[in-house]
From TrEMBL:
Chain segments carrying region Domain I: 1-64
Domain called Helix-hairpin-helix DNA-binding motif class: residue spans: 73-92, 108-127
Function: The RuvA-RuvB-RuvC complex processes Holliday junction (HJ) DNA during genetic recombination and DNA repair, while the RuvA-RuvB complex plays an important role in the rescue of blocked DNA replication forks via replication fork reversal (RFR). RuvA specifically binds to HJ cruciform DNA, conferring on it an open structure. The RuvB hexamer acts as an ATP-dependent pump, pulling dsDNA into and through the RuvAB complex. HJ branch migration allows RuvC to scan DNA until it finds its consensus sequence, where it cleaves and resolves the cruciform DNA.
Domain of life of the source: Bacteria
GO molecular function, one term: hydrolase activity
Pfam family, one: RuvA_C
Main location: cytoplasm
Subcellular location: Cytoplasm
Location of the region described as Domain III in the Swiss-Prot/TrEMBL record: 152-197
Protein name, UniProt field: Holliday junction branch migration complex subunit RuvA
Listed InterPro entries: DNA_helicase_Holl-junc_RuvA_I, Hlx-hairpin-Hlx_DNA-bd_motif, NA-bd_OB-fold, RuvA, RuvA_2-like, RuvA_C, RuvA_C_sf
Amino acid sequence: MIGRLKGILVHKQPPWLVIDVHGVGYELEAPMSTFYDLPDIGREVALFTHYAQKEDSVSLYGFLREGERRLFRDVQKVSGIGAKIALAVLSGVPVEEFARLVQVGDVTALTRIPGIGKKTAERMVVELRDRAADLAGIGATLGGNGGVPADAQSEATIALQQLGYKPAEAARMARDAVAAGDDAAAIIRKALKSALR
């Protein structure tokens, strides 16, 4: 199994791209989240990869960030979801936002992703809720934004989970405590103070 592929980008037309690695062309399927940040054709690129083999086919998927590959794999663990829907998830919403939607159980927002119906969204919430904090942490750390979660509220939610609060409870506490201009520390302090009442 290939874990990371580094070479020259020779073709890109969503959802397909081709990378030349020492004269061997690798065709990969990638989500739009990867396509948005790809370099120009002829430039070097390094991708995290996922290799999938079925009875009658072999597929290679490419991702610029480890968090994207992790989400792609985790989403496919939900019953009834395959690679096509997993790519649609990544093309429709950033990793951190998907993790937040799952944590708060926002089925309506999840159904706005192409290919996701209400029952599938409900299964995602149930089956991925425990891993959502992990996904948010990986996406924030490796997602290319310098290791900082998308916003102070998300950072506070993750911190509250690390203190032992369940994902949905931590998200609710942070949401109830946040005020304009608050940093994560202020949100955490207010959330903990409120929890003691």
